[in-house]
Specification:
The structure holds 2 protein chains of 2 kinds. By secondary structure, chain A is mainly α. Chain A has one domain. Chain A has 10 helices and no strands. In chain A, helix 3 packs parallel to helix 6, helix 6 runs antiparallel to helix 9 and helix 8 packs across helix 9. Chain A is globular and about 60 Å long. By secondary structure, chain B is α/β, with parallel strands linked by helices. Chain B has 2 domains: 200 residues, Rossmann fold (3-Layer(aba) Sandwich), CATH 3.40.50.300; 64 residues, Alpha-Beta Plaits (2-Layer Sandwich), CATH 3.30.70.100. The chains are: A mainly alpha, B alpha/beta. At the A-B interface, helix 1 and helix 4 of A face strand 5 and helix 2 of B.
Chain lengths: 252, 284
């Protein structure tokens, strides 16, 4: 169904309103990553120290915004998106929609777009505010950066959809989501930068979707390029996650 | 002309047979009841008719566009907590080519469009659910257990609403295990047990199948043993001064003729109901 049909426009409008009516959503997906970037960047002196290994760039130029963008993406991928979908299934909303001329797949599509738009918006806000407040340079290769951001979303959203496919209840999907969310943040370098992880742990990280995503984002912010293997890891997780999600997803 | 025809429908989930062999047909404009106990196969049957499940056997013919012209109210279906009544109806109206007027529908079901779903009572949720089934201006409305869990007042309001739906010419397929509802609303009923149809008839027809047994109770100042010899009477019992007489349709006249008026007080009569008819049919 084309995105311009009145049905899809109305559905997008309603889903956006519902999304924005949850204050927690705005806080965790948008507010928290932006606030952490600004607060941590201003209060932890090490973030402002130029690092010779990064060619004189500071952690606030690379690591901090990279990890905060991932925080926003993972919140959407592992919490918001699967919770909404499982709640809709649990409440019979998807089943009910399948009796109307509009397929319940449209809701899924609208939710994906909504979460992608939210994380892109948060990313732009983080980069612009960090630039204005801390003089953080914009990505040197905007196209590669955007492409990697979208690939990172594909790989993590696919896993979020798989969680939604496997969990029978909204309570369970919230628990599962958190069980995936925190280790994923860790692998992305939220608490220990990947550069400081012991060798084995770093290797493991680079094979997880969020670890590859984190490595690629930080590379791109630091040098304007990244290694193909990170992109391949993300794409592989995206394909596996999406195929499994399609295989197991039920509308009712 | 039949608008829904179901022939030899069969549906199983794994090893469990939900519907064994169900056939019935619904005429345009009638309210057709599907009645049976929990687990009899009612919901599976109508979900197959609505196109939500694929039958394992038999044929279903619906003379209407399933998506555009069939409105469905599912058992236990909810909306997002923060979705307002008006938004839900506007949204679902936008799905259809020829929707009903949301304003009129809101008026009909008596709901405030600004209230969020989470704040609606059980009866209001049920009325919203019915309104959502009607918002596409359907030719057929499939309503599954629409008054389960409602208080008597809300139930009566819902019944009035269904009667008004019929006046618009909408054909209604109504699933229920609630006999009073069936008796009050339905033109015809299919009684289902263990995945098969036991009987199809009007509610009055089903009741008369039980033989039209009447039961009268009263207090009497005179001995009542003599009533047993009347041909209209089947049985007479006396318990703590309360006399209970059962018999055929003329038993009341026979009893009041046999006893003087002054001897009888607290006279009550009970006609056999859909409940009795249902119990007789399903063998309990």
């Amino acid at each position: 169904m084309a995105i311009t049909t009145p049905q899809v426009r109305r559905l997008t409008l309603v889903e956006t309103k519902l999304y924005l009516r949850e204050p927690a959503v705005i806080f965790f997906a948008v507010g928290l990553p932006i606030a952490l970037t600004l607060i941590l960047g201003g209060t932890i002196p090490d973030f402002q120290k130029p690092d010779p290994e990064l060619g004189g760039l500071r952690p606030i130029d690379t690591h901090l915004p990279g990890v905060m963008i991932i925080l926003s993406v993972l919140t959407c991928a592992f919490s918001l998106l699967p919770t909404v979908l499982v709640t809709y299934r649990e409440r019979g909303i998807l089943k009910r929609m399948s009796t109307t001329p509009v397929s319940p797949g449209t809701v899924l599509g609208v939710q994906l777009v909504l979460n992608v738009v939210m994380t892109v918006l948060t990313t732009v806000l983080i980069l612009v505010l960090a630039h204005l407040v801390y003089d953080v340079p914009f990505p040197q290769a905007p196209l590669a950066f955007t492409g990697t951001l979208l690939l990172g979303m594909v790989s993590t959203f696919a896993i979020g959809l798989l969680l939604a496919a496997l969990a029978p209840t909204s309570r369970l999907v919230q628990g599962l989501g958190m069980a995936v969310f925190f280790p994923s943040l860790f692998f992305a370098g939220m608490w220990v930068p990947q550069a400081l992880m012991p060798g084995v742990l770093r290797t493991i990280s680079e094979f997880t979707p969020s670890g590859a995503f984190g490595a690629a984002m930080i590379d791109l912010l630091a040098t304007g390029g990244t290694e193909w293997r990170h992109l391949v890891v993300m794409a592989a997780w995206g394909v596996v996650g999406a195929v499994a999600a399609v295989r197991f997803f039920r509308w009712s | 002309m039949a608008i829904i025809t179901v022939q030899n429908l069969r549906k199983q989930y794994g090893d469990k047979i939900a519907v064994k062999d169900v056939s019935f047909s619904v005429e345009e404009g009638e309210i057709y009841g599907i009645v049976g106990r929990n687990g009899a196969g009612k919901t599976t049957t109508v979900e197959c008719v609505a196109g939500l499940r694929k039958p394992d056997g038999g044929t279903i013919h619906v003379a209407a566009d399933l998506k555009q012209q069939v409105g469905v109210q599912l058992q236990e279906s909810a909306m997002p907590d923060k979705l307002r009544v008006g938004e839900a109806l506007d949204l679902y109206a936008s799905f259809y080519a020829n929707p009903a007027s949301v304003t009129e529908l809101l008026d009909e079901v008596g709901l405030d469009p600004k209230v969020g779903f989470a704040k609606l009572s059980g009866g209001q949720r049920q009325r919203l659910s019915i309104a959502l089934a009607l918002v596409g201006n359907p030719r057929i409305a499939i309503l599954d257990e629409l008054t389960t869990g409602l208080d008597p007042q809300a139930r009566r309001e819902t019944w009035d609403l269904i009667s008004r739906i019929r006046e618009r010419g909408v054909t209604v397929l109504l699933v229920s295990h609630f006999m009073e509802e069936i008796e009050r609303l339905c033109d015809r009923v299919a009684v289902i047990a263990a995945g098969t149809v036991l009987a199809v008839d009007t509610p009055a027809g089903l009741i008369s199948r039980t033989g039209g047994v009447q039961r009268i109770t009263f207090r009497s100042t005179m001995p009542v043993e003599s009533l047993k010899s009347l041909p209209e009477v089947h049985s007479v019992t006396v318990e703590a001064g309360q006399v209970t007489v059962t018999g055929d349709q003329n038993v009341l006249r026979a009893v009041v003729t046999a006893l003087p008026d002054s001897a009888i007080s607290n006279l009550k009569t009970e006609t056999s109901s859909m409940d009795d008819a249902f119990l007789a049919l399903t063998g309990e």
